[in-house]
Model the fold of this input.
Amino acid sequence: MSKSSHIDMLNGPIAIKLILFALPVAASAFLQQLLNAADVAVVGRFASSQAMAAVGANTFVINLMLNLFVGLSVGANVVIARFIGERRVEDCQRAVHTSVALSLISGVFLSIVGWFIARPLLSLLSTPDDILDLAALYFRIYFLGMPFIMLFNFASAILRSKGDTRRPLYIMMGSGVVNVLLNLFFVVYVHLTVEGVALATLFSSAISSLSLLYLLRHETDEYVHVCINKVKIRKDSLVRICKIGIPAGLQGVIFNISNVLIQSGINSLGTACVAANTASLNFDYFCFFIGNSFGQAGTSFMSQNFGAQQIDRCKKIVRDCMILGPGLTFCISMLFILFAGPLSSLFTADPEVVALSVARFEVVITFYSIHSFNEILSGNLRAVGHSVTPAVINVIFICGVRLLWLFFFFPKNPDFCYLMYCYPISWVINISVLMPVTIYLLRKEFTSSATSLSATRG
Done:
């Protein structure tokens, strides 16, 4: 099972292996999104609208606090994959055990911080008084499960570095079923509200993370095998992981903040626009997950092959990712555009909301394939050790352009579609900067690696 789940990223055809790697990653992300929606649906259907609002009020805060530490798992993925490519077993083992230790330490840290700042932070974000207590209760219980959530993210990153994306998906599917069943049990039969869905998330997260840890403990591959008594922080591994992971995490944090500010602009346009954005946003996730999954595939494949100094293969990885990711995203986005009306009608019967949702489809989802290029190029740069560069470019030319649009252009024309144009415009501007920078840096790294290889052989 272990060997058959791994993808040999150093040999054989590239395109089909990228697809086999990326699709389970996209499916895992989409499944997680469905589970989050299930939490809201169960508590809204069987508890109360206040309880549903209390769960929803936590979404931004949870994502904001998670992003920095989840970014560190990206760093772990790059470092471990590079060591595998370089065939440095001992260094790889140090990085693997450091990653497990880092996941547990960061998870405990988030649990403690979350417990004490729950109510003050939610109050600061103007959470309505009638749901504040429920929102804080959900927040505290949810964050008690952070050690498990972080362990799952880091364990998944370790397996991805070896080319295994299927087993994390299978485990998430199993824990997802447990999560839904526990949601129903706690809310319907035990008559809990927000604490019920929070406990369900905690227990299902424990099951998924401990299952992955079990797989790593019984892994036959010496590169990613985990021994509990070796789990500790190694300074050299920690520095390598943080060098890649912290910029990626900070980028995610800033993206979340900019999205919240844009949401405030949408809110100012009225309930119909908020509802239309909510309906259309569900299909944004599909497009984003596809592009992001090929970005992660490119990161893992490039890290291993760059470590093995297989430069020609690295160039093919860049090419195939740039074709497959945006190509598949374009096909899915066009399918959504074709059925925008019926898809929007799944969420509302209000003709005005449906019309606004369809308009958002046409403005935003049409151009999502461009965003895929940003994900893939950023992943390729991180794989060769450049994590700060894509983070800075994305923050300036995506977040910066959107905020400029929101605060300077949108007030002159406060229209829903006009505001939505900030997304494709920021993607086009960003790719026009990121593309040449990526080409330059990759050529520089490839030339340096090729020169080093020739000197070694000489």
The chain has 18 helices and no strands.
